[in-house]
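Handout, tutorial session.
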Amino acid sequence: MNVLGLVFSILLILSYGFYACWDKQTASSRLRNSYTSSQKVNRKILNSFESEVYAGLNEVKSAPKLKEHEEIFEPDEIPVEKSKKPGLNRVCSRINLWPLIQEGRENHPALYELAAKMIRTFYPALNTGEKRFEYHFLDVLIASSKAAMKEDHPFSLEKIALVKPDLQRVYYKMLRGTKHWDLVEGIGYPPLQDYIKAEPAQDKICVCHAHPDMLTVLFNPKIGWKLYAEIHQQPPPALTNQLIEKVCSEMHQISVDAELLKLLELGHPDHKEHKKAFIAEDEKGNVSLRKNIYIDG
């Protein structure tokens, strides 16, 4: 019996030793994969940043020399490029909550309704079950922002603490968003920080640089995607009230709210951004990284 007990004890010790080595190896492999993926997405963001800086350089590029027997495409013969995934909603296309925070919703009813519509459109999955949730949440957000502005530290919408703690977790989820989303299919929701801001100005929403999701809030999904396609034709058409009304008519909407049009900036303005968000993903390592980088110029 003593020998048998000794054998079982040795086997048990060896089993624990093997498990400890295997667990350590697994953890090391997981850490290595995570580090490698992080380096890859950092490199992608750096490449995107350098491309952005290079594209902004005021340099006259000489026309490339054609090789012998190289074909020259006429404008009508240029192969059509496949549609690209829309970029992030630009800062100039975000809803500015500053007037609501400073002057109240009574003085800006159209802006208030638009902000509530955005919450209702983007975040039905985060509705706590309360009736008119979007208005309740927006009122809390405005009140919390007004209180935060009275403090000494720099104000930031992303860092404010809501006056109702039960909504703080909901707000955090809104700011973060989900990794993938599709408003049409009802999958996930976008990060709120890409669609709102609080800056001391009476900014209008730039339609030219708006993401289709922002255009969906302004109009509806069909009009939003149709208008986005119209705006990004080459060469782009003149972005006017008439173009918007034409697209709405084609999508069977009789008229456009005149108060909504007052909130929009039309044309093709050139907004120079000093801070831009870059996002990169590594699907293999399941790593996604977002960085806000300041660009001189």
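The second record follows below. Compare its token runs with those of the first.
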Amino acid sequence: MLRTPNADRARMLRGIILNCLHVASQGQALNPDNPNTMGRDVLLMTLEKMASLTSNEELHATLNYLQGKQYIEVAWLNDGTGSFASIELLVAGIDLAEGTTQDPGVTFRLRR
């Protein structure tokens, strides 16, 4: 299989987002009413702090992939902007983040 830098970046970004959601849901969750949910602004700030902030187009493609695989649920806004309010980590996404399942389309950074 031919690997391109863009494909590698896409796989890594998918893993970063899943890992962010998974870590945020542990312990003192950001949203006590639904600990598996993260708002758009928090996600963007987190990606920026991790030097992983990307274009809206790339972010939306990443979220569409993860939602299509049922790893997350995206609360898309119906205001014509194509944006979203929040994302929620689903059971399959938790399994992937915890390493009990695998997806060749998602790469996680090495954990120490």
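Points raised in discussion: The helical segments are 5-25, 40-49, 56-68, 91-98.
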